[in-house]
Amino acid sequence: MDVMQTEEQLKEMVRRKYSEIALQDKTENQASCCGTGGCTTEVYNIMTDDYSNLEGYNPDADLGLGCGLPTRFARIKKGDVVIDLGSGAGNDCFIARSETGETGKVIGIDFTDAMIDKARANADKRDFHNVEFRKGDIEKMPVTSNTADVIVSNCVLNLVPNKDGVFKEIKRVLKPGGHFSISDIVLVGTLPAKIREAAEMYAGCVSGAIQKQAYLELIEVNGFQQITIQKEKPIVVPDDILHAYLTPAEMEQFKNSGTGIFSITVFAQKPAEACCAPGCCN
After folding, report:
1. What does pTM read for this prediction?
2. Euclidean distance between CA atoms 254 and 249, whole angstroms
3. Would the pLDDT of 263 be above 80?
4. Which CATH architecture has domain 3-269?
């Protein structure tokens, strides 16, 4: 099958899934695995961190779909332009707005109409004039180059087949010296094929993940500096999820394999512009 066709099929599957999620409430989503539909009774949610104590938090915008708190680590300053990749109902955008203040600007990008509509409604209810939401792919952002001081994203890049393309776009859109803080799901070891290939688990943040080392190398080869893991936590997949995909023998083998699923929050910086001619740095 053509690679591009496969990527488009995966993206369309995620788009459909997250269109459904946008119409659910947080209780439905948090009873599931990143909104995949009631996949566990063992834990409240295996991915998300608690946002409720962060300034700017709005419960209406929190669909319980993240895997970290990237805005907590993003070093956002007053007046910054912040872009949130895969902005959903606007949760991270509103947290970022509390940091950047009235003098800054926050742009959320999402490729799902239902999410964009929900986020705009949440912003309108709060009369936020410096938060906007744009429809588009994060591999081809509807943003001019050298726009953002900070880019954040929460459990989104793992859903995108072309992760290298996303990091190239992040570098294009960041100002020289700008930085990102991204929370995402990565792997250590090989995830069983039955989990990786399951569509519900894909939209649920796990089987679209790549190896942790490969993820960090993608950031490095795209020319970012100061690459730092700001937070890392293991994701323990409950038995009642595993039962849906693996036989008891396969479950035992998986648990003893040393394979790990992790949420990481990664910081990196776009280099400042180098001198373009003799004497320009004087």
Report:
1. 0.78
2. 9
3. yes
4. 3-Layer(aba) Sandwich (3.40)
